[in-house]
Amino acid sequence: NAGVMQNPRHLVRRRGQEARLRCSPMKGHSHVYWYRQLPEEGLKFMVYLQKENIIDESGMPKERFSAEFPKEGPSILRIQQVVRGDSAAYFCASSPRQGGGEQYFGPGTRLTVT
Amino acid sequence: DQQVKQNSPSLSVQEGRISILNCDYTNSMFDYFLWYKKYPAEGPTFLISISSIKDKNEDGRFTVFLNKSAKHLSLHIVPSQPGDSAVYFCAASESGSARQLTFGSGTQLTVLP
């Protein structure tokens, strides 16, 4: 499967716990984007990363959220001390180059905070 | 502040007929537009895109039209098939930025057999 991979597909956390969401881009893609979709809404941009660099994090909440894309391994979106409002679908997308137009999305991680 | 708007939350069309999905935008800096299709519990799937230097782009049954003066684009699907039933998202980006996509809220298309 050469598509964007995300895991886990479903994640349940209690309030105050940490959530780690992983994304492996398509082969040959070095640009990763994270989006969040709240119920009944469109996807909202969170952060754009290249290997070892955060390029644009203008959509990230100021606290509790962080993202990385290390030289080796998947990109990780980390949410500390989760709250009920963090419950959403989190999608990762990749593209082969900056400004390359279309982005290709993974299946998403559905986070439920109880 | 919604920069990309899809004012019709739902649309029903008979199989074989044309489906027309509409999208309006307010940010005049947007110069690249995309349509995605999304099934429940899956990620969005890229369908077709158009650059602002064009006013039409075709790919098989899918055609996207762009009217820059009206800040309006539309997706035409003809003929519509039951498998086209999904949520369709319009998205836009601007060059010179990180190419983050700004999405509309989606239109649920139902194609009736």
Explain what the structure shows.
The complex is a heterodimer of chains A (114) and B (113). Chain A is built from no helices and 11 strands. By secondary structure, chain A is an all-beta fold. In chain A, strands 2, 4, 5, 6, 9, 10 and 11 form a 7-stranded mixed beta sheet that branches. Chain A has a 4-stranded antiparallel beta sheet with strand order 1-3-8-7, with no helix packed on it. In chain A, strand 5 (43-50) and strand 6 form a beta hairpin. Chain A is globular and about 35 Å long. The termini of chain A are far apart. The model of chain A has no long low-confidence stretch (mean pLDDT 92). Chain B is an all-beta fold and 113 residues long. Chain B contains no helices and 11 strands. Chain B has strands spanning 4-5, 10-14, 19-25, 32-38, 45-51, 56-59, 62-67, 72-77, 86-93, 102-103, 107-112. In chain B, the strands form 2 sheets. In chain B, strands 2, 4, 5, 9, 10 and 11 form a 6-stranded mixed beta sheet that branches. In chain B, strand 9 and strand 10 (102-103) form a beta hairpin. Chain B is globular, with a radius of gyration of 13 Å. The N and C termini of chain B lie far apart (38 Å). The relative contact order of chain B is 0.34. Classes of the chains: A mainly beta (114), B mainly beta (113).
List keywords for this structure.
heterodimer; A: 114 residues; mainly beta; seven-stranded mixed beta sheet; four-stranded antiparallel beta sheet; 0% helix; B: 113 residues; six-stranded mixed beta sheet; five-stranded antiparallel beta sheet; globular
Low-confidence stretches of chain A are none
Shape of chain A: globular
Note the overall shape of chain B. Answer: globular
User: Care to count the β-strands of chain B?
Assistant: 11
Helix and strand succession of chain B?
Answer: EEEEEEEEEEE
Our count of helices of chain B gives 0
Summing up helix and strand content along with how strands pair, one would put the structural category of chain B as mainly beta
Biggest sheet character of chain B: 6 strands, mixed
Q: Give, in order, the helices and strands of chain A.
A: EEEEEEEEEEE
Strand content of chain A: over 45%
Largest sheet of chain A: 7 strands, mixed
Distance between the termini of chain A: 33 Å
Structural class of chain A: mainly beta
**Alpha-carbon distance between the termini of chain B?**
38 Å
Please estimate the helix content of chain B: under 10%
List unreliable stretches of 5+ residues of chain B.
Answer: none
